[in-house]
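hiii, so i know i said id send this last week but things got crazy w the move. better late than never?? heres the sequnce for the chain we talked about at the cafe, plus the structure i predicted for it. fair warning i was half asleep when i ran it
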Amino acid sequence: MRNFDSAYTAQQFLETVESTPWSGQESAQLATHQFNDVLPRIQALAMRTSEWITVIGGTRQVIDAMVQSGISRARIRWVAGKTQDQREWATEQALLASTSSVVLSWLEELSPRMQQRLKMASKVSHTHSFVFNALPSLTPLH
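okay and structure toks below
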């Protein structure tokens, strides 16, 4: 994941977690398969406010895992986004709206320009964002 202020993206590192301070807030780079490892952090951030938790491109399993961790389903805003462009646009808009305490997005490879746009949107809105670089699998891979 690429570091976007309080934002998180799996763009560059698929197997590692890297923490780097930026603007006084904690940042990390995470792989999609590490969603369950990050879930306690997401849950803690979600419990700090009564704002939305926005999920863009995630699956029902992601939503169910969040609910099981203690996040109210009524606070989760789920945006499907069929294409990469739709998910990128929805992520940027969710960050700029400043109505979510956490934004989770599943995106494919991001251009440097889009990385910068999401970084700035996250910084301006003071919104925590986790952007994973692979869409969750709907079926288990064996």
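btw Strands lie at 7-9, 18-19, 28-29, 52-56, 76-79, 100-106, 128-132. thought thatd interest u
miss u guys!!
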